[in-house]
Amino acid sequence: MHSSPFDTTIDSVAGHLHRRRRSGVPLTAGEAATLAIAVVRGCADAPSRAVGAQWRLTAEGRPVLCEDPRGPDVLTVTAAVLDDLVSLVDADVRPGFARLHDGVLTDPPPVWARLERRLLAVVDPRPLVLGPLTPVVPEAPSTQREDPLDAQGAPRIDRLRTLARRLRPRVVLTGVGVAAVVATAALSIAPPSAAPDANGETLPARSRSTPAASSSETPSVAAPATHASDGAKPDGVAAQRADAESTSSPPARTPSPDDVAAAVAAVLTAVATCDDDACASALRESPAEPDEPRPLDPATSDLAMIDDLGGLVVVRLTAGDHAQYVTLVRDEDRWLVRSVRDVADQPS
After folding, report:
1. Could you tell me if residue 328 is inside a domain?
2. Is pTM beyond 0.85 here?
3. How many CB atoms lie within 10 A of CB 92?
4. Residue 321 belongs to what domain range?
5. Nearest CA-CA partner of 306 in 323, 282, 289
6. How many domains does the chain have?
7. Is 61 left (phi over 0), alpha (psi -120 to 50) or beta?
């Protein structure tokens, strides 16, 4: 580990990758390979992977592992850099970086060298571009303001027309009754405005934040007389409000760790019970390697969450003396299996 943590460094690797993501200079596969191999070898050579550390860059663009007592452990910061690289590289080389990331989390260091060789077989390392990294500024939205009356007028008229169409087949009203219903609907749709009192003076409209008057203070408005039969349906305003309430969707919520564990367990159960490769392939991010085992069935094994990086999780399945590490990734609204590894014991 570097003896002088920050004396010869200019930036953290995580900070540099964050700026590359926001800049107009995309990270190439060769640069990503240089970073990936450096951090994996540095992690393997570290005297202890349980101490706090941070990956930083020298002025020449060389990654060095620096001591940071307040930071995460060496294995965690290394996996975080590899996870950033997986999200930054092109899709055609992403599987090699993903396998290296998963191997660091689930396999012992001797396996890492084999995964390095597989990556270098398809990607040639290139020196890291340090700068300049000018952020790409998105175009500012138009500052032209729309007239509120113009914006609200058309939808308001459309809603009145819709209301009239809904009322016509249900209730037969006199001319006065129709006018009363349309006027009531217009008042319920239109925003509050000033209204004249009985003496012709203009009174200020009630503020939206002012509590409504009690039922004893506000007289009830009688419904307009109709010539419909006793089996007439509720008026259009009530029906419209009922439809809006029945179709309203509940607010979105952030999935809890228990939700993630349940979703992962469901995917692994489906893979374990597949009868053919086509069934299992539909639940994977990419086809399995020839020697890769099927995951254990969570119904007959113990499932433990090892790592949760938001869009990527690592779980451990244990059934007696048999243990596996399984990595899964989120693809839009579902989880897919990325890799399955049989292990004898926890990697050091």
Report:
1. yes
2. no
3. 9
4. 257-343
5. 323
6. 2
7. left
